[in-house]
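Hey, I'm writing a tutorial for new members on how sequence and structure tokens pair up, and I'd like a real worked example in the thread rather than a made-up one. If someone can provide the structure for the chain below, I'll link this post from the tutorial.
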Amino acid sequence: MTSKPPLPNRKSPIKVIDMHTGGEPLRIITSGYPTIPGDDILAKRRYTRDKLDHLRRFLMFEPRGHYDMYGAILVEPSLPEADLAVLFIHNEGYSTMCGHAIIALGRYAVDYGLVAPVEPITPVNIECPCGLVRAEVSVTNGKSGAVRFKSVPSFMFAADVELALADGRAFKTDIGYGGAFYAVLDAGKFGLEVGSSPVRDLIDLAQSVCSAVNASITLNHPDHDDLAFLYGAILTDGKDAPAKEPTRNICVFADNQVDRSPTGSGVSARLAIHHAKGLIPTGVTRTFESVIGSDFEGRVLDTTRCGPYPAIIAEVSGKAHYSGEASFWHDADDEIGRGFIVR
């Protein structure tokens, strides 16, 4: 019989600090995780996925987490400019970018001494699987506050792609990249409304959209094949313009996980799409609201290229808060405690 990988015990627990950004949780692993080898961040991501996935389930799943839990593993940076490096974990695996996590990690880096605080703005460079993300943390009287970040080049991969759901309903979707790839479309085209329609209905639609995209579209990214996968669907209120009015969306990602925040990488992808379609000029700040009403601000800071794609540098800002801290371990005879999911 194959032995199961060991989990932390009471003498050597995994310690975490929990935060949330706009309601979306982030569990930051502060100690107790094994050393993760790899020449670069993507190699570390592959090693963690292949060798340490039992620890993701241990921390993200019940009884310590839940279906929509999200986490961050701090690893040794490989980029010389990076102050810290991070792997993102969730209910399905390992994402390549996470804006809500960047906002939380910016505060954490200042408050816990990973970088020296500088008033009024402390820069924090965070190496992610998608590349280097530059965060700026507001600091007043030694206290951290709101965070903004400049993401990796974001671009519109495809516009108005015509597809059909499994039930035959035709639809059009844009596909954008903001550190991860998303299908972005108006929920109203299906008679649904973000914020008032049942979330279950929005999840079902997002799942069907992702299935249709994956069955018909081959994604690619100029930097690395590891980045070329559809992370989720963003269902919007259809208010792509005017640019100065707020717009609302819900992001359903990974294994039908629902983001409580507006989704930082999703805001970057939406900004890239809006800019490519001439709907938002450089420098205009727009408010993006989540399914629970929390908000981020986003703007197109600059234009650039990502391989063959015209791209933008998006700037996204928000505020994270602390929830608590904990030490997690496993009793040797507790099979259920290795991690399970009900939903």
